[in-house]
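Structure (tokenized):
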């Protein structure tokens, strides 16, 4: 299994990577490499041990090999240079503070406030806020009190943890998991939540919105059109479901 951040180092010391790829196989295909083993290149990973923005806690790893199996051309100097380059790449992804818009690229948000993102991948949000997500923007993880106010287009949040919150989901927006006290205020069109745990809550679900499981004290206030909940546990409650209205 490949981890963030994955890259390839060639025999001549070139570092190959792509912001949107964490699969070594995909990187091999992207750069049209011939995978003949460690004679040509090595697969490396730069893995966060702690928060993604804590750059000093990243650990370097040569994938599939240990220190006794590295190729003869792999030197300590090359390893140090590779770590320096990967550190620079991660630092350039980390953003704190305020910005009106982010377009394209992959980011790590820490104590950040972004008015709008378009066609971006947010690797993780920690105590950060995004007012609007447009295009095919994606958030992989939301931690702390992170918040997204609106999601448009095909925007997606993969996981919401701690007190993370999405206020509105429009078009084909999707949340895969909601943990702790995560909350979605509105879900419209084909929006979907796969799991809701602890005290997660959805206030309204419209269009073809769907929740597969709800645990703990999860609650949905309204479900309209073809909205669906497969399972509800604990003190979960649906106040109004159009399917059962006369």
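Design, position by position:
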């Amino acid at each position: 299994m490949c981890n963030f951040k994955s890259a390839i180092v060639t025999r001549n010391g070139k570092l190959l990577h792509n912001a949107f790829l964490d699969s070594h196989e995909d990187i091999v295909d992207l750069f049209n490499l011939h995978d003949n083993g460690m004679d040509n290149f090595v697969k490396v990973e730069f893995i966060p041990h702690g928060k993604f923005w804590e750059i000093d806690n990243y650990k370097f790893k040569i994938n599939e090999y240990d220190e006794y199996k590295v190729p003869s051309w792999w030197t300590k100097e090359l390893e140090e240079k590779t770590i320096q380059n990967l550190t620079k790449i991660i630092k350039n992804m980390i953003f704190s503070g305020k910005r009106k818009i982010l377009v394209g690229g992959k980011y790590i948000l820490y104590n950040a406030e972004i008015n709008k993102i378009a066609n971006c991948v947010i690797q993780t949000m920690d105590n950060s806020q995004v007012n609007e997500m447009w295009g095919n923007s994606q958030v992989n993880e939301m931690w702390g009190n992170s918040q997204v106010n609106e999601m448009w287009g095909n925007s997606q949040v993969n996981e919401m943890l701690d007190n993370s919150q999405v206020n509105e989901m429009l078009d084909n927006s999707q949340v895969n998991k909601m943990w702790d006290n995560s909350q979605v205020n509105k879900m419209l069109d084909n929006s979907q939540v796969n799991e809701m745990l602890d005290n997660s809550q959805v206030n309204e679900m419209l269009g073809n919105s769907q929740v597969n499981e709800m645990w703990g004290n999860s609650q949905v206030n309204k479900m309209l059109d073809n909205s669906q909940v497969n399972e509800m546990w604990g003190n979960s409650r649906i106040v109004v479901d159009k399917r059962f209205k006369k």
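Reviewer-requested clarification: The mean pLDDT is 82. Residues 2 and 73 are 23 Å apart (CA to CA).
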